[in-house]
Amino acid sequence: MLQELEKSRAWIEVNLDNLKYNIMEIKQAISKYTKIIAVVKANAYGHGLVEVSKYLNDIGIYDFAVATLEEGITLRKNGIVGNILIFGYTDISLMKYVIEYDLIQTVVDEDYAKKLMDSCYRVKVHIKINTGMNRNGISYQNISLIKEIYKNETLDVLGIYTHLCAVDSLLEEDVVFTKLQIKRYFDIIDILKKKNINVGSTHIQSSYGLLHYPEVICDYVRIGSLMYGTHNKLVENPKLKLDLKPVLTVKARITSVKTIEKGETVGYGRIFRAEKKLKIATASIGFADGYPRNLSGKNVPVIINGKKAIVIGRICMDILMIDIKDIEVKVGDIVTLIGDKVTADLVADFARSASYELLCRLGTRLHRIYKYEKITE
Ligand SMILES: *Cc1c(COP(=O)(O)O)cnc(C)c1O
Asked: 135: which DSSP letter?
């Protein structure tokens, strides 16, 4: 009942047609030998893990990546088919679940590799190589261990990958480092192949890597943000030009409209003071819904009835206030906080964050409405 659109105070709209459009756009741009691993960690970047993954299955995507064991199990329990790679650490004692739910575990570092080999679990893995990010992965220099993992009798090694840590930057120093990471990775692949080791699937690119280094070709690209259409417009001149559409929109209801006099203040801490008579509105969304509190006092735009208005005063837990200027607004109207002309990247910039964080912190109190046309394939 409360989920009915007409009555909800704030919600997320997920346009799955746009998701499909973005996937097609990416598919067209990559080599025909390369497949997409759809990255659906963190509740599919706030878009809804299960719904998004089901839809991806429906449009022919059968490779997924998640951050945690729980996310992988959730996918299986909801009937998702195909390969599911866990990027993150899973305690060895939980390996039985990785096997039971037919997931693929990443070998996250040297210590983990040894424990995994000692445990004798017959588990599917991808080996992660640390080529310079120093987050996780086995050092690119530790060839002997990498070979040992491949030769291990019980582990089923299906792939080998690395992650690039400066691909969103085109500063010369970062480009040099990225190329070094790429070289370190392919050098290992060469060495293994020369030893007649079947390396399995190779992958190195994520969204920004694909935009800036499309010439690097592997079996897979691991794509998150591009698929959701949230890549940063600050990436001004990517080599690969993609026309992507944002998938997610955050909307809330206008709950009150009033006029305040010059000199009056708005909200907690009185950080906003009207310099003239103003028309203001309240909207039923706040930081508990994931609209960051540190957007307070930053003149962040929102869209009401197709026009730009400005968030004023301190953002509250459940409510925020808006300078509606001369826009015709009445109670019950809808305000768009993320989406339309106020993209996730724009709003994230105001919050001095990234769209990644903004989206995956959207609150559980917002329900999601999925929009799509019937798939005819
Ligand atoms: C999150 C993640 C990705 C996806 O990154 P995007 O920039 O969203 O495409 C790819 N690979 C790894 C290892 C990740 O953790």
From this structure: S
How many CB atoms lie under 10 A from the CB of residue 307? 15
- Please work out whether the CB of residue 39 comes within 6 Å of at least one atom of ligand 1: yes
pLDDT value at residue 38: 98
Helix/strand/coil percentages in the chain, nearest 5:
30, 25, 40
The reply to whether 19 falls in a domain is no
Does 217 share its domain with 271? no
Q: Is the pTM of this model over 0.90?
A: yes
Q: Same structural domain for residues 98 and 151? A: yes
Tens of pLDDT along 60-119? 999 999 999 999 999 999 999 999 999 999 999 999 999 999 999 999 999 999 999 999
φ, ψ of residue 305 to 5 degrees: the values are 45, 45
Indicate which residue of 195, 268, 341, 371 is catalytic. 268
Evaluate whether 122 touches 164 at the Cβ level (below 8 Å): no
Q: Find the domain containing 306 and state its range.
A: 248-371
The CB of 231 under 6 Å from ligand 1? The reply is no
- Give residue 87 CA to ligand 1 midpoint distance, Å: 9
222 lines ligand 1 (CB under 6 A): yes
CATH, residue 255: 2.40.37.10
258 annotated active-site: no
Asked if residue 230 belongs to a domain, the reply is no
Residue 202 shares a structural domain with residue 85:
yes
pLDDT tens digits, 1-25:
455 666 799 999 999 999 999 999 9
Ligand 1 centre to CA of 222 (Å) is 6
* 170 and 55 inside one domain: yes
What atom of ligand 1 comes closest to residue 128's alpha carbon? 13
